[in-house]
From TrEMBL:
It comes from Smittium mucronatum. It comes from the Eukaryota. Keywords: Membrane, Transmembrane, Transmembrane helix. GO terms for cellular component: endoplasmic reticulum; membrane. It holds the Pfam family Mpo1-like. Residues 183-208 are annotated as: Disordered. The chain crosses the membrane at residues 23-43, 64-81, 87-108, 117-136, 148-168. InterPro entries: Mpo1-like. GO terms for biological process: sphingoid catabolic process. This is Endoplasmic reticulum membrane protein.
Length: 208
């Protein structure tokens, strides 16, 4: 199950995100997409009132706060999933989740054009990710193969890869890259050669 087996999910996702330049592009654009999604989800406004005991903990500055909107609950789910993956990773990237919530909430509170910013962030991020897939990776996104879990997993792939790229769990990272490379080679070798006919050609025997 993809929610449980991180290694298997990472390797499968990495098959269409193997080229370094494509990974770099996704590291920039995937959080941008998530920012746009959370912005739209936060437009629901508070789904439940903020408890008095919680208010001081989510007030990071006079403007840096958020309410308990749909976006906040999505971010809570992301954080809990991060904890299940890796305790250290979850706390290292927790500030990014908070930054997404506070900046989107600030825009909603200060400008009526906030939905336009969320839309532009989502469209630009998605467009550039597709450029990376089709022109750098030369592979289409996995979501077009029916793997819709990748829409959720993309953020974890790029952020965890970024952390490992900086030296976190180096041996584990090398193992994952080797598995991805082997999986790509295995998939390539299993595809039929287009130059080879799929059926043996019929030969005619000359008549005597």
């Amino acid at each position: 199950m993809p929610f449980i087996n991180f290694r298997e999910t990472y390797v499968q996702f990495g098959k269409s995100h193997y080229e370094e330049n494509n990974i770099i592009m996704h590291m920039i654009c995937t959080p941008l997409i998530l920012w746009g999604v959370i912005g739209f989800a936060s437009l629901t406004g508070p789904l439940v009132p903020t408890p008095d005991w919680l208010a001081p903990f989510i007030q990071f500055s006079p403007e840096g706060t958020f309410d308990l909107s749909l976006g906040a609950f999505i971010m809570l789910f992301y954080f809990l999933y991060s904890l299940a993956l890796d305790f250290i990773y979850a706390f290292l990237f927790f500030p990014i989740l908070i930054c997404i919530l506070t900046t989107t909430h600030y825009l909603i509170q200060t400008t009526p054009d906030a939905p336009h910013y969320f839309y532009l962030a989502f469209i630009c991020g998605a467009f550039l990710n597709h450029v990376g897939h089709y022109f750098i990776e030369k592979r289409r996104p996995r979501v077009y193969e029916g793997d819709f879990f990748t829409v959720f997993f993309a953020y974890f792939y790029v952020t965890y890869t970024f952390l490992m790229h900086l030296g976190y769990r180096t041996e584990f990272y090398q193992e994952l890259r080797q598995e991805i490379n082997q999986s790509i080679q295995s998939s390539s070798s299993s595809k039929p050669d287009p130059a080879t006919p799929s059926h043996p050609s019929k030969t005619t025997t000359p008549k005597n």
